[in-house]
Amino acid sequence: MDKLWAPWRIKYVSGIKTRGCIFCKAFKGRNDKKNLIIYRSKHSFAILNAFPYNNGHVMIVSNRHVASLDRLTDMEVLDINKAIVVMVKRLKKALNPAGFNMGINLGKVSGAGIDKHLHVHLVPRWLGDTNFMPIVSNTKIISQSLGELYKKITKT
C-alpha cells in the first residue's frame, strides 16, 4: 500500500502501544476530547475511530468490558441501540451522509481488531465516496481531521 504523509497522527500511532483495553482506558479517562469520546450514556459511549474507514466513522462501545452480545444485560442492549440512534441523528445533522454502514465484528476471525470489548461500527456513506485511489493505489483518503470532526459532531 502506498503511504500518504500524515505527521499529525504520530501522537495516536505512538500511543497505541499501551497495555490494556483502549476502550476501557478511554471510558475511564477524564478528557473526552483527547479520547475522542463524543457521547456518553448509562451503559455505553460513542468514540470516533482514529483509523476510520470513512469520514465520521464512529464506534458505539459497551461501558462494561464484554466480548459478546450474549454477555450484555437487556438494559445494556437497549442503551447501545439508543446510542446508535443518537449517533445517526448527530452524524446526519453534522455531515449529511446519504446512508450508513453498521456492523459488529465478533471475534478475531470476523475481522475484529479489538475482539475482547464489544463495539458497533457506524460508518457514514455518501454517493460517490469511493474513488479511484483505493482501486489503483490501495489508498483511502479521509478528507477531514479528527479534531475538526470532533468539534462538528459535539456542537450538534
Summarize the topology.
Blueprint: H1 10-15, H2 22-28, H3 32-35, E1 37-40, E2 44-48, E3 58-62, H4 74-95, E4 99-103, E5 119-125, H5 132-137, H6 146-154
Antiparallel strand pairs: 1-2, 2-3, 3-5, 4-5
Q: What's this, in brief?
A:
Helices cover 35% and strands 17% of the residues. With 156 residues, it is an alpha+beta fold.
Descriptive notes:
With 156 residues, the chain is an alpha+beta fold. It has a single domain (22-154), classed as HIT family, subunit A (2-Layer Sandwich). The chain is built from 6 helices and 5 strands; from the N terminus they run αααβββαββαα. Strands 1-2-3-5-4 form a 5-stranded antiparallel β-sheet, with helices on both faces.
Question: Class, according to the CATH hierarchy?
Answer: Alpha Beta
CATH topology: HIT family, subunit A
* N to C succession of SSEs: HHHEEEHEEHH
Strand order, sheet with most strands:
1-2-3-5-4
Total of domains: 1
The tally of strands reads 5
- What share of residues is helical? 25-40%
Query: How does the overall form come out from the CA principal axes?
Result: globular
The proportion of residues in beta strands is 15-25%
Q: How many helices?
A: 6
Architecture per CATH nomenclature, i.e. the level-2 architecture = 2-Layer Sandwich
Q: Roughly how many Å is the radius of gyration?
A: 16 Å
Q: Structural class per helix/strand content?
A: alpha+beta
CATH superfamily: HIT-like
Low-pLDDT ranges: 132-137
